[in-house]
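Weekly structure sync, notes
Attendees: PL, DS, HV (note-taker this week)

Item 1: Class Ib ribonucleoside-diphosphate reductase assembly flavoprotein NrdI
DS walked through the input record. Source organism listed as Fructilactobacillus cliffordii. Sequence as pasted into the shared doc:
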Amino acid sequence: MEPMRILFISIEGNTRNFVNNLTAYAQKMHQQDSAHPLVESVEISDQTDFAQETKPFFVTVPTYLDGGDGIDSGVTELLTTTLGEYVGYKDNAKLCLGVFGSGNKNFNAQYCLTAKRYSRMFQVPFLADFELRGTDQDVQRIYQDMVERSAEVLTAQ
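Item 1 (cont.): predicted structure, written out as tokens:
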């Protein structure tokens, strides 16, 4: 079974920490039962050379915005644009299975807004959210979401 791929960007380390925990959890599950897929992660940064993706992937993106409330007034996405450009590169978006978002609930309407914007922009489902570094329950829930979404897409093909 192919590993489930996840592309992410991490500014302050929260998303990287979450993805590392997700990868470790997948490894643990796979060791218990090889039917559980592994998770392969790829961190995208300003130094990343853009490439044509060849396998399905998920995206995890934090929210860094300037201005606006996410509803009535405009916002400017900060710091995470490289990941959006990477997903939009050539036909990469066609292989995106869905988006997970992180953020800080203190920012109300802007919570996970970047992931929701990616969902609309690339016409893929916004699958789930987690706050800051996430919890063990978030890791388990999102792993299960990835497994279910992967199976759903494979069944549809």
